[in-house]
């Protein structure tokens, strides 16, 4: 029987010619999902319901901005641990008709009275990682408003209806979100309101269990009807201030009312023949660009992206870039951040010269200079406009403090401040902390890609790996997103987390170089969760990719189907 089947296959190949043979090879690939391709818009998020909501907005004539706000609002409901109205937002927008790039920093500042002196007077010697003193002013709602004001097409209130629906009617909890929810259940117990809202019946909702949050539905109705005023000056602001006051926090009405997101100029570098963009400090996108500059000093390894030589170069470049960003990054409104020097090709050459091609460096220091759990999503509309956007609470459920009666947690971004007064990231009132969440964009000729990979300090090194996969190894964006990755959870030491899809031979070779590898499952969420969209301006075709390390999908907009005449 097997022999007969072989004869039939051979005869089929002979009859159909080379095209059949080529298609067999095309199916023999190292990644699981096909890249999404369409002449219409695409919304790529970490939750299918959010991607669908954004795609529906595109179908209704909405812009990439409209779709992103609708998708983000749904993510606030369906991923309450990773993002929400109590968090921050950063965005890069590429306008197709002009080719211009815009950056928005919607990260919040510390309350004016939250200072090093205030904490030390209370006996606090290290920056709190949870609780009310880790809370900074949330920036996301003002970020949505500023984006919508410039590029929104649909009415503001309409964008929040999908989120309100899911909050009121409920949604089945996704498997990865359930696991993260479970991991923070002890933190939620520390706050009565968090326990009431997010532990119904005293426990974490199971995978597939329908979870409802009528309180956050109420908050979204207020924002939909009253705009950002409801959040920063109105009823939601009052609820935030009461929550803070009850816990001994320092936030005031003026801390909220005075806040405004900031338009910024994206920073960039070239990697081979591509241009890669990130946002400037207080974020750590600069680390991704410096890492790419260092990697560029070495040729891509012909053995492939997860060969020992390639991975060694990437790991060592990461350590050097991270040492610098830890030493020099902060809020540029409070001190000069040496962006130009850190992005200099000459400086990268000096840092690259420190890499020993045969040995891991376990004690990396910052270079000598002259005088941040999250959700990322991306949208491309049918005109080719691209929004690369990221939003976060920082840790799971942020500070673990939930706003009374509003159903969302407040972020703990303040935990990233330093209590060392000499640090560029030293805590100060009305100062923004060092930030880990970074959207990115890259382009070459007619190819324009909005991308991001979340996961705290994992993000810059994950960005650099994605860029190299596209540029050096000519992968499509889905393959580049799925490619095995490494990460460094301890930062600057030799302990590296790596996925098990890397071969044992590579793991053995890296171990001999001095890397201490922790091998995790094939698609571990330790590597972060990414999304990407690509617009080809020569053909008008859009492409979307969604990371299998998340629960989401890249969903295309459906065109209007007219009845065909017989």
Secondary-structure blueprint:
Blueprint: H1 2-16, H2 18-27, E1 36-38, E2 42-45, H3 48-59, H4 64-78, E3 88-95, E4 100-106, H5 116-121, H6 140-151, H7 161-169, E5 171-172, H8 175-183, H9 185-189, H10 192-198, E6 210-211, H11 214-226, H12 228-232, H13 235-246, H14 253-257, E7 262-264, E8 267-271, E9 274-278, H15 285-295, H16 308-328, H17 339-342, H18 345-352, E10 374-380, E11 386-392, E12 440-444, E13 447-453, H19 459-471, H20 477-482, E14 486-487, E15 495-499, H21 504-512, E16 516-520, E17 530-536, E18 541-546, E19 553-556
Parallel strand pairs: 15-16
Antiparallel strand pairs: 1-18, 2-10, 2-19, 3-4, 3-11, 4-7, 5-6, 8-9, 9-12, 10-11, 12-13, 13-17, 14-15, 17-18
Salient structural properties:
566 residues; 17% strand; 37% helix; alpha+beta; Glutamine Phosphoribosylpyrophosphate, subunit 1, domain 1; seven-stranded antiparallel beta sheet; globular; disordered N terminus
Q: Helix segment count?
A: 21
Arithmetic mean pLDDT? 92
Q: Give the CA-based shape.
A: globular
Structural class: alpha+beta
Uncertain segments are 1-25
Strand order of the largest sheet: 1-18-17-13-12-9-8
Let me know the number of strands: 19
Explain the overall architecture:
The protein is an alpha+beta fold. The protein folds into two domains: 51-259 and 374-416, no CATH class; 264-372 and 442-556, Gamma-glutamyltranspeptidase, small (S) subunit (Glutamine Phosphoribosylpyrophosphate, subunit 1, domain 1), CATH 3.60.20. The protein is 37% helix and 17% strand. It has 21 helices and 19 strands. The chain has helices at 2-16, 18-27, 48-59, 64-78, 116-121, 140-151, 161-169, 175-183, 185-189, 192-198, 214-226, 228-232, 235-246, 253-257, 285-295, 308-328, 339-342, 345-352, 459-471, 477-482, 504-512; strands at 36-38, 42-45, 88-95, 100-106, 171-172, 210-211, 262-264, 267-271, 274-278, 374-380, 386-392, 440-444, 447-453, 486-487, 495-499, 516-520, 530-536, 541-546, 553-556. Helix 3 runs antiparallel to helix 4 (64-78) and helix 15 (285-295) packs across helix 18 (345-352). 53% of the residues are buried. The model is unreliable at 1-25 (pLDDT under 50).
